Amino acid sequence: MVLGAPALATNRFLYDSLNYDPLTDLAPVSLLCRFQNIFAVGPTSPVKSIREFLDRAKANPGMTFSSPGFGTTPHLSGELLKRMANVDITHVPYRGAAAGAVTDAIAGRVDSIFNTAASLLQTVRNGQLRALAVTTKDRFPTAPDIPALAEAGVPGFDVSSWYSLWVPAKTPPDIITKLNNAVVKALSEPEVRAKFDPLGVVVQSSTPQELSALLRFEIDRWGPIIKAAGISAGN
pTM of the entire structure? Predict the structure, then answer.
């Protein structure tokens, strides 16, 4: 089995060649969880809302946003914001959140940051960063006090990260069904769900067919954005 993430959809556009194709080499079992990205600024930033940020970005082209790296969903969230809000903001990639993306945002060395809730939520709650929005179309259950980008100034914006379970493509259907049933049952257990809450993660299972549709949706959505922005893993 393999634990899959949005990279299953985006890697085909980020690398010149891959030795696998998730559409033909893997069989979906179930979605496991979803989690939002958070868009935030440092505590000394004059920006208090998405609308203020967008207005400032239009007046000052070249404002910056950090992310944990090229092609990650936080990076792609920023690229999608540039497209949908028609703003010129500059991506500053780091090698992971712990490599300076968060500390530089706190210190104001970058104007803003996109990162996963697991990386930023506690920092926001501690007052070290000011969250402007979450990237999902609605407020997220684990952070209901943070507005969604779609409601705060960018209608239709909706990005979330996820984890899922996959097996080799030739796995017998009855085995896939058995695995799916086991995953759904495990994710319904209160003790299991409670492990996800501190990370800002919402537990969510699916049918294999729903997971397959999610992968295809992500491929169709991110492909044009990655190509238009000229993003590659070698950037």
Answer: 0.89
